[in-house]
Amino acid sequence: MATSATSRSDAFVFFGATGDLAKKQTWPALLALTKTGRLDMPIVTVGRHDIGVDEIRAEAKKSLEDTKSFDAAAFAQMSKRLSYVAVNYDDATTFDGITKAASAAQHPLNYVALPPQLFEKVAADLAKAGLAKGGRLVVEKPFGHDVASARALSAKLHAAFPEDSLFRMDHYLGKEQVENIVFFRAANRLFESTWNHEHIAAIEITMAESFGIEDRAEFYDSVGTIRDVVQNHLLEVMAYLAMELPTARGHTALRDARTKFLTHVKALGPDDVVRGQVRGYRDVRGVANDSTTETFASLRFAVDSPRWRGVPFYVRTGKSLAVTMTEAMVRWKRVGHPVLEDNAAPPANALRFRIGPDNFIALATNVKAPGEAMRGDSSELSLCRPATGMKAYERLLGDAIDGDASMFARQDTVEEAWRIVDGALAAKTPVYPYDKGSWGPQEASRLAPKGGWTNAR
Ligand SMILES: NC(=O)C1=CN([C@@H]2O[C@H](COP(=O)(O)OP(=O)(O)OC[C@H]3O[C@@H](n4cnc5c(N)ncnc54)[C@H](OP(=O)(O)O)[C@@H]3O)[C@@H](O)[C@H]2O)C=CC1
Ligand SMILES: O=C1O[C@H](COP(=O)(O)O)[C@@H](O)[C@H](O)[C@H]1O
């Protein structure tokens, strides 16, 4: 007999269908999975408001139009499968409505895109309603808010869903552009031999977003940017940039290598972080008027391994910044002297991995400037690849439907990541104000790479 670990899911139970994530990512992914025939099952949306399924259909349609992913035929197909159940999160018996709506399902996939403080309760109430038996649970990051709570959360979730039916979603693990970092390293011998402290001066990662928290206050104000994107997405990117390359094949080897790398990253202290809060944040509905939640962070990491000893890793991220752009930059050390007839040493070589919104890899080089003198000029070789493949949410939700957790986050990795950032969070360092549309507070320059951050072009 097929177990829940091997069976295909036969109902999609969707908590958070009205949320920000649903609008930007989940509805487009569900439509894409409908188009390819992989979401051939009832979709039971669940929320706290007393609304009908027509409101959910309208919400889904608007999200698809806003993200330019609407397709009338696929939407009609998906619409027929939709239902809506209103629940009261303080009354577990209201989950019986979900059981009724998914009554034909043996293997429901329960997908929870809610503020993380609700994960435990939802898992327990799903179990009481009989939706854990034979089913799966997908929870969105962040998993816990520090090491201790991540362990406690895992234990609580395991009381309802065993490890092989628990999927910890971190969509950066499903991004082509992120996977390409490690593939590019492994497949191009040219770089790997200099990928170490002898040649590399620093590694920097920027995840800048020009938009604010919009109507996500209930989620965001209790989390902040370090827990929202550094502890998970950006440490995953750092791991792909700097881990030892696995010799075995497959995703388990990649998961092991990422986790091993994180064990070498030193725990952050108060001097390794500068936090910022955008002016006007406290006026957003739902944000506490004395909130010290950071909407910006600049951090410096050190890696205690033979390969990286002495190389600083800088990470900067924030809301309401000058642009929306995620990029990782590997900077080599400079040639220490002027070349031929040049007056100054040439700029350092650097590799830029653009992760979003576009997708390219660029290599900064120095060439001879046209003319009689042997002088230099900088030039970037750029490798652009339009992102044509599956988007991260389609890929990961498709895997969850099939019961394949290999591209999801693992508990040991999650705990290592908390170990690294916990010290920076617990220190309650000052939160410096910054203007919307800027690159964060002035104070962040204290933790910048030598020569300053590279701001997006
Ligand atoms: N937004 C994003 O881009 C991404 C988010 N995520 C993760 O997804 C999860 C949800 O984030 P996001 O969608 O941004 O958050 P939102 O603040 O938009 O809320 C998501 C859902 O939670 C419901 N909700 C909020 N507060 C409560 C509450 N107190 N009780 C019951 N329901 C509540 C909302 O319902 P209602 O409509 O009723 O308010 C909404 O449907 C988080 O874990 C986040 O880390 C992951 C990747 C990207
Ligand atoms: O998990 C999250 O990610 C998004 C950014 O995702 P991306 O794929 O557009 O880079 C971020 O805006 C959000 O705050 C966070 O919860």
What does this molecule look like?
This protein has 457 residues and is of the alpha/beta class. Helices cover 33% and strands 21% of the residues. A nine-stranded mixed sheet has the order 14-13-12-11-7-10-9-8-15, with helices on one face. A six-stranded parallel sheet has the order 3-2-1-4-5-6, sandwiched between helices. Strand 13 (360-368) and strand 14 (376-384) form a beta hairpin. Helix 1 packs across helix 2. The longest helix has 19 residues, at 224-242. The chain is globular, with a radius of gyration of 23 Å. The model has no long low-confidence stretch (mean pLDDT 94). The site of NADPH dihydro-nicotinamide-adenine-dinucleotide phosphate has 22 residues, from helix 1 and helix 9.
Distance between the termini: 56 Å
Question: Strand-and-helix sequence, N→C?
Answer: EHEHHEHEHEHEHHEHHHEEEEEEEHHE
Strand order of the largest sheet: 14-13-12-11-7-10-9-8-15
Query: Can you list the ligands bound to this structure?
Result: NADPH dihydro-nicotinamide-adenine-dinucleotide phosphate, the ligand O=C1O[C@H](COP(=O)(O)O)[C@@H](O)[C@H](O)[C@H]1O
Question: Helices and strands: which structural class?
Answer: alpha/beta
The CATH homologous superfamily name of the largest domain equals Dihydrodipicolinate Reductase, domain 2
- Provide the gyration radius in Å: 23 Å
Strand content: 15-25%
Instruction: Please tally the helical runs, counting DSSP H or I stretches of 4 or more residues.
Output: 13
The general outline is: globular
- Total DSSP E strands: 15
Q: Low-confidence segments, ≥5 residues, pLDDT <50?
A: none
CATH class of the largest domain: Alpha Beta
Q: Mind describing the biggest β-sheet?
A: 9 strands, mixed
Q: Would you identify the CATH architecture of the largest domain?
A: 2-Layer Sandwich
Query: What's the overall average pLDDT, rounded?
Result: 94
The CATH topology of the largest domain turns out to be Dihydrodipicolinate Reductase, domain 2
